[in-house]
Design goal:
Blueprint lengths: L1 E6 L4 E8 L5 E7 L5 H5 L7 E5 L3 E2 L18 E4 L1 E2 L11 H8 L2 E4 L3 H11 L2 E7 L4 H9 L10 H4 L5 E3 L10 E6 L4 H8 L3 E6 L4 H5 L5 E4 L10 H10 L5 E4 L1 H9 L4 E17 L5 E12 L8 E7 L5 E6 L4 E4 L16 H17 L2
Parallel strand pairs: 3-4, 4-6, 5-7, 6-8, 11-12, 11-13, 13-14, 14-19
Antiparallel strand pairs: 1-2, 1-9, 2-8, 3-9, 10-12, 15-16, 15-17, 17-18, 18-19
Helix pairs in contact: 8-9
Length: 367
């Protein structure tokens, strides 16, 4: 079927449709990962986004359960230069079937390089994939009637509905218990934590008192979609945790921690989406290639005294991590669990457990 992607600026890209034929509006962003399309499709952080893959050939290794980061595709649409009709021997379906069953539209056969340059120059913008027979004016009207990413709470649309426990997957006795605020958490983050602790995942609006009374050793604030500013309930709960239990924020959790501490966030021009972003650890001078997926950032100049930067993005000098100098609080903007992307930064999960050990020793010494 012939379809087109219409951007709110008026740009139109015509191609061949796959997946669902139901039009869906989303913010159009590009991802520079060369592999990992299944992890990208199922990452809840991509809620309300139409993802453009810069790698030209997508779908060539099919689908498998191993790559799923949530129970279903989360994107609003998918854009590729060329899509393979093959499928993984264990999946029984290809990318076209997978998205069709999920109700997500796709478009292929367009100039994804030109589209990526358009986004880089003009910034992320809303778009919609529609049948080619629909007029451009009708498509633009769909976009105008849809909500903007900025100011919208998308966390409430992707978070867990009730708590669930993931047992310790390591050897020996459970060394720690970690509470996770689910703002749109990826499975790989849970897997990394479960290697070292029992993990209990909570809905995003869970009151901090429930966490503090739950006998946990630390808290992780997960990744998630959209603008952190309207997620005020999360910011309030984080304020009530700071200084009382070790806290680590990842991606959206990083931004929410920044806001809870009194900082500000702002929207990036076209965001960071991909698996090849160089980040410097300011404490060691070490440079790691990281996986990233965010459209907002914390303004480092807005952070209060007692909070210091720990990581910066070497592409644009944006803040990629901070820590509190007197409380057990750390945050990183990128994805140490990758999926997809390099695993250079997976060691950073160890910082949460080091904080737990130090905090436990401090409590014992003060008794």
């Amino acid at each position: 079927m012939s379809v087109k992607l219409v951007i709110e600026s008026g740009a139109v890209f015509e191609g061949e449709g796959f997946g669902s034929q139901e039009p869906r509006v989303g913010e159009v962003v590009f991802n520079t990962s060369s592999t990992g399309y299944q992890e990208i499709l199922t990452d809840p952080s991509y809620s309300f986004q139409i993802v453009v893959m810069t790698s030209p050939h997508i779908g060539n290794y099919g689908l498998s359960d191993e790559g799923l980061q949530s129970s279903k595709p989360q994107v609003a649409g998918f854009v590729v230069r060329e899509m393979s009709e093959s499928h993984h021997r264990e999946s029984g379906m290809n990318l076209d079937q997978y998205l069709r069953e999920a109700g997500i539209p796709g478009i292929m056969g367009i100039d994804t390089r030109a589209l990526t340059r358009l986004i880089r120059d003009g910034g992320a913008a809303r778009g919609v994939i529609v049948d080619a027979s629909e007029s451009n004016d009708e498509a633009l009207d769909r976009i105008r009637k849809s909500p903007s990413m900025t100011g919208r709470d998308l966390v409430g649309e992707v978070t867990s509905k009730s708590p669930r426990t993931v047992p310790f997957a390591g050897e020996g006795e459970t060394p720690a218990r970690i509470a996770v605020y689910d703002y749109g958490i990826k499975k790989r983050i849970v897997d990394q934590l479960a290697r070292r602790a029992e993990v209990v995942i909570y809905p995003a609006d869970t009151d901090a008192s429930e966490i503090l009374e739950g006998g946990f050793d630390g808290v992780l604030l997960s990744n998630g979609p959209g603008d952190p500013e309207p997620v005020t309930y999360a910011q309030e709960n984080i304020r009530n945790l700071i200084g009382r239990i070790p806290v680590m924020g990842v991606c959206l959790g990083h931004q929410l921690l920044g806001l809870a501490l009194g900082g500000r966030t702002y929207k990036l021009k076209f965001g960071h989406h991909g698996g090849n972003h160089p980040v410097e650890d300011l404490r060691t001078g070490r440079v790691e290639i990281t996986a990233q997926n965010h459209g907002f950032a914390v303004d480092p100049e807005s952070l209060p005294p007692g909070v210091e930067p720990t990581h910066i993005n070497l592409n644009d000098q944006t803040l990629e991590g901070f820590r509190h100098t007197s409380e057990p609080v750390i945050a990183i903007q990128f994805h140490p669990e990758a999926a997809p992307g390099p695993s250079d930064s997976v060691h950073l999960f160890g910082e949460l457990f080091r904080m737990i050990e130090e905090h436990s020793g401090s409590r014992t010494a003060n008794r």
